[in-house]
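Next comes this protein:
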Amino acid sequence: MAADLPPLWERMERPAAPRQTLTLDRIGETAVRIADTEGLDAITMRGLATHLGVAPMAPYRHIANKDELLEVMTDRVYGELTVVRRGTWRETLRDHALRTRALVHAHPWLTELPATVTPLSPNRMAVMEQALAALDGLGLDADTMMVVFRSVDFYTHGATSSELAFHRFMKRQDLASPTDVRVALAPRMTYFMDTGRYPTYRRYLHEATRKDEADWQFETGLDAVLDGIKTRFNL
């Protein structure tokens, strides 16, 4: 059945048949809701059919396999993300980075997608197009323009993925706060510090005052990336 389906995005752009109760849009909406509340591991084709109230094989009339389902889900949530043109390229990309971070926090399963999921989809392409358009006309060649976009995007996704990995660690260890994490890891940290091999890290432990300010840490790093781009390319 799945082998007879047209390409995924061609299916997505076709209007639903009249009185059709099961559509790709409904499948995507339901799957996103499951992943948001129960995590990516809860996404199975059989479980999806149960949530939709249809026969186990019914989704396969629309979705070829789980990877396609994950692509539909990812594209759907990226439809929530719009690049808003601000006064300058820097303001636009900074705002986009903050919006992207918020999107990933709202849908943390985005950081756990398997490598088999194709990263290109209509809404993701639209976001990239909008971001690149903010850099067009600044005198950058095409290669450099993409490097600038990716530098901001990679920082954003990398930093946000690290934040969410820490949250998952806390949840698995049943720790309610970063302070609880420090208490739990104190014996191990004490051992490392007592070796005397990490004097600069010891200084961080004793002097840092913003260890738990995730927003400040993210935005400070983001500004450093943007400032570096501005200086490097004279923008």
The chain has two domains: 2-77, 83-177+212-233. The chain has a mean pLDDT of 92.
